[in-house]
Amino acid sequence: MLPSQTRTIRRTIAAVSLLFSLAVVAPLGLAGSARAQAGVVPQSATQLKLSFAPIVKKVAPAVVNVYARRVVSQRRVSPFFNDPFFRRFFGDQGGFGAPRKRVQQSLGSGVIISADGVIITNHHVIKDADEIRVALADRREFDCDIVVDDERTDLAVLKIKDGDGDFPHIPFGDSDKLVVGDVVLAIGNPFGVGQTVTQGIVSAVARTHVGVSDYQFFIQTDASINPGNSGGALVDMSGNLVGINSAIYSRSGGSNGIGFAIPVNMVKLIADAAKHGGKVRRPWIGASMQVVTADIAEGMGLDRPRGVLVTRIAKGSPADEAHLNVGDLVLAVDGVPVEDPNAFGYRLATKQLGNSADLTVLSDGRKHTLSIKLEAAPENVPRDTRQIGGRSPFTGATVENLSPAVAEELSVPSDEEGVVIKSVTPGSPAERVGLQPGDIVLSVNQEDVVNTRALASIAKSDPYVWRVEVSRDGRTLRFAVRG
User: Fold this and answer.
1) Which residues, in sequence order, are CB contacts of 236 under 8 Å at separation 6+?
2) Long-range contacts: 32-38, Cβ < 8 Å, 24+?
């Protein structure tokens, strides 16, 4: 073949390739988001030049800056505060003069989810705030009320005061449809520099043991998330809200490419509570679970660890009525596999009260399905909240009678009975002896504590030594304190 013929053939092939490329690229430009949702990998440099600008233009106006302001009292502390001789005369106050008030401010982000100015943000952004103000992308500013503040999910709902009822907002997506590798955008106000958009992919969709909230189930992304992004939006390529950015993994305080967002299906639970009086009501089945280890899996004849093992069943609970038994292995909730108790808790928490859930259960080597009712935890014992005073080790502790409802609120086993510590005042005798919220008081000086009235009565006594027995995380702790 002559060189001139070879060159002609090469030009013809190049021209055909170019036409084919343009034929592919043209419809992509018109329907880029649909193509992105289909999971198509870019085929050319031209496709890589596609912009996220249309999505950002759609959602960015609904992401706000959240300014939380709180007033704290502070004493000037003596440098001799830790000296025992000094404390004999001045006690535990360790300060001089009247407390001085100081203003603390925190900065975060939030997402408007409805036209009437309802905003989702993180609990830790507005914790203990006296005043909350938000700034929109168009530079308008508004004061806000707190409608829901749920520490267990690290989520809060705010409502703009005196708004015009026509705010930009982001629609909810479905976080269960996310898969690893999906492209997402994170929008927030990192370091207070102003609204910032970063892009990345979903790195994991069910990350647990993050340690941010009681419900350990997060979307992990490599989109850059930094301090100030908390409460901001994680959106998909259709412009739907799929998560609330909440935490980062970092040794320096800056982004290392590992960020975590609360799935929007959990956000929906808190947003729904805002419509019904602000009280978060979660499904309760009255069962406790534990992770399946390699040893447990081998003992049950499994090829690998999977599912969650039932360890406790509360009498008369929905789990009891559905004939779920201790030792059963729950493999899935409504067909979705669960690999640990955190995943199981998340799947239940995102279900609607009054409905039922189908549990795939392995029992005695046989797999079957149980339908279990989703009810609110009952308060079948009046909580009788009391703050303990006097000179006992419990001084400064607020206690309640334990019921399934109280147990659910404080994340303690629902089949326990007695008195549980709800909170502990900082610096109080109760804190100094090591008592913690969630501790269940079993006995004091070998006398069983049956209710809060009994504990308040015992706390008025004056023994030479206080011998206390409490239950914490399934372990019994005993300690003695001089009276």
Assistant:
1) 37, 173, 178, 182, 183, 184, 242
2) 33/237, 33/238, 33/239, 36/183, 36/237, 37/236, 37/237, 37/238
Residue 116 CB neighbours (<10 A): 14
User: Contact 261/243 with Cβ under 8 angstroms?
Assistant: yes
Residues found in the chain: 483
Q: Cβ contacts of residue 121 below 8 Å, gap of 6+?
A: 66, 108, 109, 110, 111, 155, 156, 158, 230, 231, 244
The residue assigned the tokens 């090829």 is 303
Residues of the chain where predicted confidence (pLDDT) is lower than 70: 1-39, 48, 72-104, 207-216, 248-257
Residue 399 is which amino acid? Answer: V
Residue spans of the domains in the chain: they are 175-274, 283-376, 386-482
pLDDT at 186: 93
Active site residues: 124, 154, 230
CB 112 within 8 A of CB 233: no
Q: Among 2.30.40.10, 2.50.20.10, 2.30.42.10, 1.10.340.30, what is the CATH number of 283-376?
A: 2.30.42.10
C-alpha to C-alpha distance for 165 and 472, rounded to whole angstroms: 48
Q: What is the pTM of this model?
A: 0.75
Return contacts of 255-259, CB within 8 angstroms, 24+ apart: 255/224, 255/225, 255/226, 257/200, 257/222, 257/224, 258/203, 258/220, 258/222, 259/186, 259/200, 259/220, 259/221, 259/222, 259/223, 259/224, 259/225, 259/229
